[in-house]
Fold this protein.
Amino acid sequence: MTLYLIRHADAGKRDPYSHGDHLRGLSEDGQRQARRIADRLGDAGVTRVLSSPYPRCVETVEPLARRLGLEVEPEPLLAEGANGLRTYALMTDLAGTDAVLCSHGDVIPEVIRMLRITGTVIGGERGNAKGSVWTITSENGRLVAASYAKTPRRPDAVVR
């Protein structure tokens, strides 16, 4: 089984003076990234799509959910500011599922740290770019391996 942990796609710049940052949606580049994520994971056997309730996360996984005929499930444990340890626990609960989880740049590094501490093999490049996808495989209910891939923003970028 495989979990796909996605950092929300590009949402433009955070306005430090805005109290409504939690309402920020995707930029045009972010919408392009969301479509590329749907193309990448559309045939991956995903049966659940969970997301931070923030619009930029929901909008990142909506194209994939639509393609799969699934609803995006709002999950507070994926929201900005969530406790990474609790987010990691959610992922271990989902270890027997093929699922997508969309979260934020402050939560994902803590989850990756927990994966490393608990013995998950982390191969290749590491990162936390907007629109990036961590692919995490499980065996017998245990998260065993993780790999990282970026999702290009530019229209002329080659998707790997």
Notes: The longest helix spans residues 28-41. The radius of gyration is 15 Å. The first strand starts at residue 2 and ends at 7.
